[in-house]
Structures are given as C-alpha cells and as structure tokens.
Amino acid sequence: MKRFYPLKFEPILKEKIWGGEKLKTFLKKNSHKDQIGESWEISGVKGNVSVIANGELRGMSLKDVLNNYPEEILGTKINKMFGTDFPLLIKFIDAKKDLSIQLHPDDALAKERHNSFGKTEMWYVMQADKDSNLIVGFNEDMNKETYLKHLENNTLTQILNFDKVSSGDTYFIESGRVHAIGGGVLLAEIQQTSDITYRVYDWDRVDENGNERELHNDIAIDAFNFDLKDDFRINYSKNINLSNEMVSCPFFTTNFINLIGQVEKQNKHGSFVIYICVDGKCVVSNNGFNEVLEKGETLLMPAAIDNYTIEGEGAKLLEVYI
C-alpha cells in the first residue's frame, strides 16, 4: 500500500501590471522579475496546474496524482462531488498598486457561460502598508439602476466601501460582490477553482502601449448580487492550538491556528486539508515524514492521512478543507 505524505508544490508566479516585490522579499519566492502580483500555491486550473515539489511524487502534476489516487488525495466525499478536479485555488497576492474593481459569477452563471466553477473567495491580510485599504461592497444600499447610473457617470468610486486594513484582517467575498485589493496589501486568498473575473473599472489605467485593459460591464451586470448583506468582515478567535473557525461556506471551511508547541491532529472531515503558513514556521509530521512549513508556504495533506502532528512556536496557520 502506498504511503502518502504532506505535499508541497512549486509556486506558479504571475506578473501583473499592479504587482510588486513583496512575494520575493516577504515570502521569499524565487523570481528575477519585478512585478510579481500572484503566487499560485495549489492550482488545478487548466494551463496552470501545480507540480509537486517534494518526496516520491516530486515532478508529478496535481492532475496526474488526482487521476491516479483520487480518493486518497481528495477523500471519497470530495471525489464524488468533483471527480478528479481539484476544487480550490490557493494564492498569495501582492498589490503594489490598486487592482481593478471587479466581481465574480456564481456557479450557475459560470457554468452556463464558461463551463467553470463560480468564484467565492476569502482574504487574509498578511501585511499592509500604512493607510492601505480593501474595497468590499458598497457604502450604501444599492440596486441595479443606481449602480448603472454611477457607472455611466464615471462616479463608481463614490459608492464603493473602502476599509483600511492591517495584518490579520479577514474578509469573505461571495460571488456577486464587488471588490478590489488596494495598493500596499499582501494577502492570502482561498477560492473556488476558477479564473473567471469580470472587471468593471480599472482606474483609467493604460499599458505601455497606451491601451486600457478590457472591461466586462456588458456581462458583469448579470453577475451582481445587490441583496448581499454587509457581513463580509470576519471576526474570529485566536485561541492557542485550536482550530478557530473563520469562514464556513458550501465551498470551503477555513480555520485559524495560533500554534504554540505541538498539536495532534485527526482528519475527520473526509477531505484533504490545506495548511497555509501566514507567519512563523512549523513542522508537520506523519508516519516518518517531517515537512517544514515556513511563512509563505502551503502544504496539502492528502485525505488518506488520518493522524499527524504540527509543532512550532508562534506559527500562524490557515487550515482549509471542504
């Protein structure tokens, strides 16, 4: 019987017009490029599939491993739900400049238009420069008519909600909610496996050739959910050595672990478990395997691993499963 172990993956680094150098300086990602906006940590997105970086399966793609060991990696429940498609996309994002104002379609609309999952996501702020902000939702009750009026008059920013943020702040971004990451923010993002984004405003920016980026206002309007409540700011406990729930939704559950010493873990979820180290470092051990997880690194625990330990002093982890 094959022994499964904690899996690390090669980061997929993406240059962006708004990207910076924090993924290299803060999170030690290896790149000679200057505008790295995203590090895709675990991805099953077609054309951007992660490759295993450690152990016996090193060099194999996530897709190949899922095709060979679907239940062992995903868990029987998740395998039945998603087949051999990996259902989550884990990223670190460095916004040196403001991202575009955008939103994402839900599952039904994404399936109909793009044969894709929708995109519900969450953010955990790892570092933020002074006065940096996130844009999430509107600053007043909103409807389609009022929104379109502001869009037409180029006054969209007047109705958007700007929140100043600092390390540890957490936001839940449901599909259909307008949002953007402001310049100066470094964060971890957990989302459904989807690369579908509807851009509605891009600060009138142009590229080196004087061209503006494409906007998607004609199709974005149908993706808005103007009935969403202002419940996107997440308050969570930071009790030591416990899995403190941050977000629980149909697409993923994320917990915060404030690690001091050693924790014994049992996987009772019937799912893979992902650990994202957002501060400090720790060691994840199972059946003779010991994997160091440092700030800015991500680990996938196959569902076949029932018991393991996590040990470290002062590490902060995001624990993710379905």
From TrEMBL:
Domain Mannose-6-phosphate isomerase cupin per the UniProt entry, residue ranges: 246-314
InterPro entries for this protein: Carb_Metab_Reg_Kinase/Isom (IPR051804), Man6P_isomerase_Firm_short (IPR014628), MPI_cupin_dom (IPR049071), PMI_typeI_cat (IPR046457), RmlC-like_jellyroll (IPR014710), RmlC_Cupin_sf (IPR011051)
Signal sequence coordinates: none
Keywords: Isomerase, Metal-binding, Zinc
Domain annotation Phosphomannose isomerase type I catalytic: ranges: 8-115
Any coiled-coil regions, as ranges: none
GO molecular function, one term: isomerase activity
Top-rank taxon, per record: Bacteria
Designated name of the protein: Phosphohexomutase
Species, as recorded: Winogradskyella pelagia
